[in-house]
Amino acid sequence: MHAQASSEAEYAQARSRRGTRRGGAPAGGASVSEAMLALQRTAGNAAVTAMVQRSRHEHGDGCGPTGCGGSGVVQRAKAKDWKLGSTSTELAAVKAGHPGDPLVDTLHHIIPKSLFQPFLALLSPSQVLQITTDLAPLAPAAFASPNTDKALKNLPANFRIGPRPEDRSDDPGSGLDVNTTASGNTTPRSEQLENVYHYMEAAITAGAVTQTDFDTLFLAPMIDACTQHGTAINIDPARATWVTDPATGKYHKP
């Protein structure tokens, strides 16, 4: 299993792929910034924000035919519909090895899983195929699923394990949830995934993805993160550092 910070050789190998990735013609016909401005001029900022929020929503316990309510924590639904068997099996084994440990309980996604489906909806078939071609060798367990959305939701590099959302004082809901070191710094792998997260949000808001941005702002940092992680699932409790708040009895990152 790779440590949180990869070796210099791993970084060089992953980053060198950026220089060989093709520039290609725009898939969406405009840059993210141009498309975002056009959309905002047409619909207004408030309408665009509302549209993005609707596209990212995942139904929770309180959702029904007339509306949604419930806890509001949509990032980690308790239903196992998003988990592959390999993910569920390893999570169960890790928890069995740490019986009763509240810090080894729940899988958290660094990039929220609710972001993948609306992003994939913007891509061409060839771009979706690129994701599988480039990431499957680095995350074979995830890409055992032919469903690219499900494969990305099971991407091991995007996991962190920790306490239940209700036991955290810093739970991000459907937002970014990076790994941090004991000193509170974002880990190198999470830095790459954070870059992907911000790009995906901007692309969804703009409603457009160019080939160049897709190659350099999505695939390249995803390859970096998966290379740092390694090919095994490796749900490793040592990666997640948590601090206890004696006043509330809850946990948070440093």
Concise summary:
The protein is mainly alpha-helical.
Structural features, described:
The structure is a single chain. This protein is mainly alpha-helical and 254 residues long. The chain has a domain at 85-254. Helix content is 43%, strand content 6%. It has nine helices and four strands. The protein has helices spanning 8-20, 32-43, 45-56, 85-96, 116-120, 125-135, 148-153, 188-206, 211-229, and strands at 106-109, 159-162, 243-245, 250-252. The strands form two sheets. The protein has a two-stranded antiparallel sheet. Strands 3-4 form a two-stranded antiparallel sheet. The longest helix is centred in the C-terminal third of the chain and has 19 residues, at 188-206.
Write the SSE topology.
Layout: H1 8-20, H2 32-43, H3 45-56, H4 85-96, E1 106-109, H5 116-120, H6 125-135, H7 148-153, E2 159-162, H8 188-206, H9 211-229, E3 243-245, E4 250-252
Antiparallel strand pairs: 1-2, 3-4
Helix pairs in contact: 1-9, 2-3, 2-8, 6-9, 8-9
User: How is the biggest beta sheet arranged?
Assistant: 2 strands, antiparallel
Low-confidence stretches: 1-30, 42-80
Helical segment tally?
9
Taking Cα atoms only, what radius of gyration do you get, to the nearest Å?
18 Å
The amount of beta strand, in percent, is: 5-15%
Spatial strand sequence of the major β-sheet: 1-2
Q: Ends: how far apart?
A: 23 Å
User: How much helicity do the residues have?
Assistant: 40-55%
Q: Output the helix-strand order.
A: HHHHEHHHEHHEE
Strand tally: 4
Class inferred from helices and paired strands: mainly alpha
Average pLDDT, rounded to a whole number, is 78
The outline comes out as globular
